[in-house]
């Protein structure tokens, strides 16, 4: 009897976290997840797992010992440090023209970035917002720390 009530809950929770379209390839994938590492989507938080797809609007959340590494479709790489909250507010990428836009918000913690094709495509195509600044990114590596 317990198995019957448990299985529908697990199936429902998994379905609620899937993309709207099964054909949607997402905007990136989790390449590293350690410690307390969560993906928040639509008000739900689930543990980040290797290979997990990310979508526009997702938030990466880490605890005091957590880390998440992500590679996006344009080959941008993110590494979030402990006690971080980083949102991917906007992401669009055309893999033929390499044009797109990328807006990320760092609410707290740290984010190391190696920019990919979007940042190299045109001025201000990639931006990182913090509580006190808006950074325009052009083909570079950098770290953002928000206390």
Topology:
Elements: H1 2-16, E1 28-34, E2 37-41, E3 44-47, E4 53-54, E5 59-62, E6 67-72, E7 77-80, E8 85-93, E9 100-114, H2 117-121, E10 126-129, E11 134-137, E12 141-146
The termini sit apart by 48 Å
Low-confidence stretches: 1-21
Helical run tally: 2
SSE string = HEEEEEEEEEHEEE
Question: Helices and strands: which structural class?
Answer: mainly beta
> Radius of gyration over alpha carbons?
16 Å
In helices, the fraction of residues equals 10-25%
Looking at the structure, what is the overall shape? globular
Mean pLDDT across residues? 86
Proportion of residues in extended strands: over 45%
The largest sheet, given as strand count, sense and whether it forms a barrel, is: 12 strands, mixed
* Total strands: 12
Explain what you see.
This protein has 147 residues and is mainly β. Helix content is 14%, strand content 48%. It has two helices and twelve strands; from the N terminus they run H-E-E-E-E-E-E-E-E-E-H-E-E-E. The protein has helices spanning 2-16, 117-121, and strands spanning 28-34, 37-41, 44-47, 53-54, 59-62, 67-72, 77-80, 85-93, 100-114, 126-129, 134-137, 141-146. Strands 1, 2, 3, 4, 5, 6, 7, 8, 9, 10, 11 and 12 form a twelve-stranded mixed sheet that branches. Residues 1-21 have low confidence and may be disordered.
């Amino acid at each position: 009897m317990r198995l019957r009530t448990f299985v529908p809950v697990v199936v429902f929770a998994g379905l609620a976290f899937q993309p709207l379209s099964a054909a949607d390839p997402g905007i990136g994938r989790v390449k590293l997840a350690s410690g307390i590492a969560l993906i928040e989507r639509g008000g739900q938080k689930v543990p980040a797992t290797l290979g997990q797809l990310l979508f526009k609007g997702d938030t990466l959340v880490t605890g005091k010992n957590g880390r998440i590494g992500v590679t996006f479709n344009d080959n941008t790489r993110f590494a979030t440090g402990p006690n971080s909250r980083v949102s991917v507010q906007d992401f669009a990428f055309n893999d033929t023209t390499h044009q797109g836009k990328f807006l990320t918000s760092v609410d707290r913690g740290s984010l190391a970035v190696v920019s990919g094709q979007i940042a190299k495509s045109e001025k201000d195509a990639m931006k990182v917002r913090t509580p006190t600044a808006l950074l325009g990114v052009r083909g570079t590596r950098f770290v953002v720390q928000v206390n």
